[in-house]
Amino acid sequence: MVSKEKLKELRLFAADIRIAALEEFKAIGVGHVGGSMSICDLMACLYGGVMRIDPSNPRWEQRDRFIMSKGHAGPAMYAALALRGYFDREELLTLNRPGTRLPSHTDCNRTPGVDMTTGSLGQGFSTALGIAMGCKKKKLDSYVYVLLGDGECEEGQIWECAIFAPAKGLTNVIGFVDYNRLQICGTLEEVAGLSGIGEKFAAFGWHVVDVADGNDVEQILEAIDRAKEAADKPSMIILNTKKGKGCSFAEDVFNHNMPVSAEQAEEAIAALEAYKAGLMA
Ligand SMILES: Cc1ncc(C[n+]2csc(CCOP(=O)(O)OP(=O)(O)O)c2C)c(N)n1
Q1: Which of 234, 87, 247, 262 is nearest to 164 (CA)?
Q2: Which end of the chain is more exposed for a tag (fewer CB within 10 A), N or C?
Q3: Model pLDDT, residue 21
Q4: pLDDT in tens, 226-270
């Protein structure tokens, strides 16, 4: 049972991740706001306590790994990494500028704390499974966490991975689907009619946990605990999220890589600061 204090700390951390990500978007005036905002609560849980990491030693062999398979949500991950001390917060303002270490999509050759280069949807999942196999071979007890988009689940590669992980006994894999139902130009159902993602993973032999509110840190933590208890299978956690969560100009809109004005960013940051003040009152 997680304490009320810890939950409050994680909710504040999630709000700070959103604020820091909005500062990134404000600095360059554009970005994947919706896909980043929907996963900030997961980032807060993973980087706020779940993962075994050492920000002063990003390549520590015993660390847990996180692969952002929906690589366009890099800005949310960078915000979490900066707030955990992997690099200075000011560096966030270089997002996607020439020479930056923070490209719009995650790149393990550039950013401290990024475990795999991603952006071509589907591929991050395959590499996560390769990393999980490597950890098993090296007898490391590390977990490999991997985040998929729901639109990304329309890639055939995802279902090759769905077959492969249980077959190879990759019990150290805990995946998440950011089930926000929106992709670039339509809903999941409109684009390819994909439904029942959890049932499909279960049919392939995964342990599946459905999280009713994937933007609630308490429910996310409970799901991760249940995934760890099911130690004989890889787990897939379906997070029912809202695209753009916590950022009114981006909530539930189809604008995928959207322009962000300074005014919009500042308004959204002010609303998040007010939310934080409410939590602390
Ligand atoms: C292989 C591949 N095909 C197409 C794209 C272009 N693309 C980038 S994001 C995206 C939609 C992803 O939707 P979803 O996985 O639901 O992510 P969310 O919008 O919820 O963050 C697409 C099609 C890509 N990056 N890689």
Answers
A1: 234
A2: C
A3: 98
A4: 999 999 999 999 999 999 999 999 998 888 899 999 999 999 999
149 lines ligand 1 (CB under 6 A): yes
* Cβ proximity of 241 and 214 under 8 Å: yes
Mention every residue, 6+ apart, whose C-beta is less than 8 A from residue 189: 181, 195
d(C-alpha 175, C-alpha 153), whole Å: 12
User: pTM of whole model > 0.90?
Assistant: yes
Domain that holds residue 171: 4-280
At 13, which CATH number? 3.40.50.970
How many domains does the chain divide into?
1
Q: Give the Å distances, CA to CA, from 211 to 112, 162, 251.
A: 30, 19, 19
Atom of ligand 1 nearest to the CA of 152: 15
Answer whether 115 contacts ligand 1 (Cβ < 6 A): no
Mean pLDDT over residues 11-34, rounded? 98
